[in-house]
Specification:
The protein is mainly α. It contains four helices and no strands. The longest helix has 22 residues. The protein starts with 6 loop residues before the first helix and ends in a 7-residue tail after the last helix.
């Protein structure tokens, strides 16, 4: 919240952090400690966001501005189609335990 000033943005940064934790789980070294590893990832995500905001003070990357739609204006058919596409993409992902 201190970085973004908005709970929705803070939630997004938290989600990005946990995604990076998940993707980087193979790089975790127990002898270095979980807490330090997590905080390092979170600090880097926060720094990346601050850097992005300094380049785009409006809060949105220009390419994303065209795609932003008020949730109140979503067409339910489009929303269902997107949900279906995301679920299909997730179903195609390999099982992470297969490594």
């Amino acid at each position: 919240m201190r970085v973004t000033g908005a709970s929705g943005d803070a939630d997004d940064l938290l989600q990005i952090t946990f995604l990076k934790v998940h993707r980087g789980r193979a790089s975790f070294r127990p002898q270095m400690g979980l807490r330090g590893w997590l905080f390092t990832i979170a600090a880097r995500v926060r720094k990346d966001e601050a850097r992005r905001r300094s380049r785009h003070p409006s809060g949105a990357v220009p390419a994303q501005e065209q795609e932003m739609v008020d949730p109140e204006e979503w067409d339910s058919a489009v929303a269902r189609e997107r949900v279906s596409a995301v679920r299909a993409a997730l179903a195609r992902l390999p099982d992470s335990s297969a490594r």
